[in-house]
Amino acid sequence: MLTDSPDTSTAFARLLTDSQAKLYAFVFAQVPDAHQAHDVFQETNRVLWEQAASFDHAREFLPWAFAVARNQIRAARQKARRDRLAFDDDTVARIADRMSTRAQALDERQLALAQCLQRLSAKQRSLLERRYGRDESVHEIATRLEQSANAVAVTLFRLRKTLSACIRGAMSTGATS
Amino acid sequence: MTTPTHEELEALLARLEQNDLDEVERKRLGQLLCEDELLDAAVDQLEMQALLRWHHGASTAAIEVAESRVSTRLRLLLAAAAILLVVGTAFLTLRESTRDDSRSESFVTEGGVAPVARSERLPSGWEIRPTGDAQYSVDGAQRILLTRGELLVRSTTDDAEPLDVETTLGTARARGTEFYIGNHALGDATSLVRVLVMAGTVVLENTLGNASGSAGELLSVAASRAPELVVADSGADFGFDLYRELVRENPNASLFFSPYSITNVLTMAAEGARGATADEFARVLHWPESARRIGNDAQRIPFELANIRSGYRTLNRRFSEHDSPAQEQLARRARELNDQIVEVGRRIDAARAANDDRAWSELERQAGALRNQYYQAARKIKSYRLDIANAVWAEQSAPISPRYLDTIRSAFEPEAIVAADFVNEAPREVARINDWVRTKTKGRIPSLVDEQSIRPLTRLVLLNAIHFFGEWKTPFDPGMTQIADFTLPHGATVQVPLMRNYGLEDCRYGAFEADGAFFRSPKMITRGQTEGCYPGPGGLQIVELPYRGDDLSMVLLLPRDAGGLDALEQRLTAPRLRRWLRQLEKRETKVLVPRFEGSLRFELAEALKRLGLQRAFRDPSTSDGADFSGMLQSDSLEDALRVEQVVHRAFVSVDEKGTEAAAATAMIMSDGATMPDDVPFVPYFRADHAFLYLIRDVKTGVILFLGRVTRP
After folding, report:
1. In chain B, how many domains are there?
2. Under the phi-then-psi rule, with left for phi > 0, alpha for psi from -120 to 50, and beta for the rest, what region is B257?
3. What ipTM was reported for this prediction?
4. Which of B63, B177, B180, B208 has the lowest tally of Cβ within 10 angstroms?
């Protein structure tokens, strides 16, 4: 039986630290509302810490962490008003499965993203910075840019599509390795 | 290559990003994501959003720990770990937070988490606890009106008096029990009332009957039987029938009237109609056959009006309901958020002055979140006023049946039942009636009756007045209004002020072919494309513009051809309109509508006769004359009653009005620089020729006003 020695605590902290980006992506992909996702992400971390002592270090950390995250997502969805839920339960389960299989490559994709962002125009990078850096809503950006919200949302969709294709290309040519 | 389903997925995910997905779209998105290819495309998008957020460091707090929920030992562990975490990623910090506490105070929940509601104790020994955003009011110690949402109701003492929880579909009556009651609006403009009995017995009843349930049992009333929907559907059918008759009487003229006001009065009269006269009312008003009575006196009283009465009572109360607890709470929340935004603004100024970039950045983030919350709350605040009132002026010396007046009193809740003196003081009664109408319509209808219509032989006057004022959910910018050509039905043009909104997103739009079939408006077109954007000749466009609060909306039906209004009117029926309205979709639309104002007076007798209401106007002493014996005392020797006149006046004014804030956020989208290949298709709804319009209750479909504009 494992004890909470300083070594295991530190090891656990490192596992959790190393998995933060993956955990973050796992949660945010299933909960499109950023504020709600943020709460779920925090709560998942809290629960993981609470259960640190019971974690069996012989097991893989990420599937265990994802299982905790799934429970937190389920709990948040049960508390949320139905009309605030973007996806039904089945769809969330399918997204979770997909994200689980992609998780190992996420760090690599994150690295590739940094390179791909450089290929965008300054205007496109500025748009992404507003949306994801300053956390401005689509409506706020639209007002500021004097465009319709739909035009901004569609533009963001296409930028993400472009970046996703760029990342795939970069990974297939080994540009990030 | 992009396929139509990919296009649809793109459109839906774009709407999801704007927090604008409705129930139908959510379902559609779920269907699309059942396909592996589309699911992969969506997961690409969702994952990319997460990666971008992570890359840009939008996450500022990864771990929040409620102090009371962790042991000291774990806190020490966390403190040690926090150092690693902060070193490991720049985005993670450890904070001990009381955020959960503040969330429970919040009415508008950012993350969709239902607020924790407080329970309310009634002096009669009952406790009610709303869940989510329940809308209810306590009407005395033993009666609660539940408009929407769920309540947990329990008696706190053994000897509590019986409690009634009234909903739109029925009343739950309980004694010494505990139960959940929910009044839910469903997506297709219907509603459902459910009662889950936890202990004791609850009786759920409405005009159709009653059912009782004990612990563990579920009682429900289906929406399709809701009386107000019966009233809405039959009122719409009648409204379009009357519209066609009025068009026939007033060819090429603009017109405007309130079907709802007229059906209130006709139904009050129908309450006292008997035999064939009552049958005519039922046919003209499109009452359902299911209301027809069977039994010994079915010939004399052919229709059971309990359901219809209940529908009018519910609707009239709901339309005239002002400042519900939920609305007051929203207004309070908006004021609080505004105060917080002002306070954060002060702190931003201070941080800027102190060159504290970190604090400044955090405060900007807070201000952004608060502005979002304020925006969401403010747009839910109802900003329309609908007042509906009925009244009866009854000649004091006439043997009007007290039973008839009681029925009218309970069903139509007239604001006034006046003992009038038509015999000796007809001019005075004319003045009193017009005063009442003027007051109820805020001066917009200065007079309704005159001394030609109210005479010493008058015995009864049934009245309804309705007044509505609403602000557009997205107002038109007065600065954008320009004088432009408006094409009259026969081709000539006149100059009118045309209001414009080139990026209206709070609207639903649809286009239809000449045969009424839905025209699939493209989502994307190549720059400069004109083919395939609109339906062909004989087609039409419909746009629905909501008023603030989203309860009511104006629907405009615009034929594609400038001279196409006649053809549209010929094929317009209530069921077809309902089908078209169901097919509208929320999308950005460029809307151009003339500013217009008008006042009209109609004498409806001839139109009603053509629709089939004939006996009611005839001499009651003849064999096929009027029979309103239900209005008179049974032992009365008084000559029977007949309808002499039905007058209707209407006023309408449509302009750009809205709040200052909403006027400042009017948007025009034109920059497509990041989309070089193709651009979103934003349909034009250019009402610069004759069109038809109506103001309706979104939930039930009740048509409050109906009209057309041929010359603004």
Report:
1. 5
2. beta
3. 0.90
4. B208
